[in-house]
Write a structure and sequence with these properties.
Number of strands: 9
CATH class: Alpha Beta
Strand content: 15-25%
Structural class: alpha+beta
Number of helices: 6
Largest sheet: 7 strands, antiparallel
Mean pLDDT: 95
Distance between the termini: 31 Å
């Protein structure tokens, strides 16, 4: 998927289970990558197949993307001018589905991390909630907040590593310069990831969008290094 993926399971050492999790991520990459000519997304973007002729899995992702577009007043949109790019929804969904593979196998203490977006379940080796760090976007070797999470997901959208890859669909061609990082905690990583992407596209107003949703908490860092948390974010912070 073009990013590091880490899985830690505290209550299983089943190698076949781990292989099935990583095989699933490989399948997602083969299906949804915009960089592989053989993927279903590339086939749709080049007109080789229609969306209606795509697999049920692909059509379901497009339906989820459309629902997210409606949920965010259009700030989440997988249409990129001349092609579809569903990465903003596929990554979180893939992590959540990988976590479901582990749950179905009876695992109760684990985390799945793909590119810094995390689904955490149960407890770590010390019997405590899993620890997740939020990077300083101006110095990625530094952690500005440490969170304790269990039974939820965390996702961060920003421009400090991949540059200007998120855009405001309501202002095509304009870069988002007023904020550099927005972390969202949600009931699962799918919810956290899709809304983190949309909220970042809103710029400074994104944290208020997160504030208005009862199932989400957020932490925004602006271009001046000023941090703005949502009202309930502090209950996850341990340092």
């Amino acid at each position: 998927m073009g990013m590091p993926i880490t899985v830690e399971v505290r209550d299983s050492d089943d190698e076949d289970l781990m292989e099935s999790v990583f095989a699933y991520f490989t399948h997602v990459d083969e299906t949804f990558s915009t960089f592989k000519e053989t993927s279903a997304i590339s086939a749709i973007n080049t007109g080789r197949i229609s969306l209606d002729a795509a697999s049920a899995e692909v059509r379901a992702v497009f339906a989820l993307a459309e629902q997210t577009r409606q949920d965010t007043d259009g700030y989440f949109n997988i249409w990129r001018g001349d092609r579809y790019d569903p990465a903003g929804i596929v990554k979180g969904l893939a992590i959540a589905n990988a976590a479901d593979i582990l749950r179905c196998a009876g695992c109760a203490n684990f985390y799945v991390d793909a590119g810094g977006d995390i689904e955490a379940v149960g407890h770590n080796a010390e019997g405590q909630p899993w620890r997740v760090g939020i990077r300083n976007p101006f110095n990625i070797r530094q952690i500005v907040k440490v969170l304790a999470i269990s039974g939820c997901g965390v996702a961060t959208s920003g421009t400090y590593i991949r540059g200007q890859h998120i855009y405001d669909p309501h202002a095509p061609g304009q870069t988002i310069n007023d904020i550099v990082s927005l972390t969202v905690i949600g009931p699962n990583v799918y919810e956290a990831d899709r809304f983190a992407t949309a909220a970042f596209a809103m710029g400074r107003h994104g944290i208020m969008f997160i504030e208005r949703r009862a199932d989400l908490e957020g932490y925004m860092i602006d271009a001046n290094g000023q941090a703005t948390p949502s009202s309930g974010f502090g209950r996850y912070v341990i340092s």
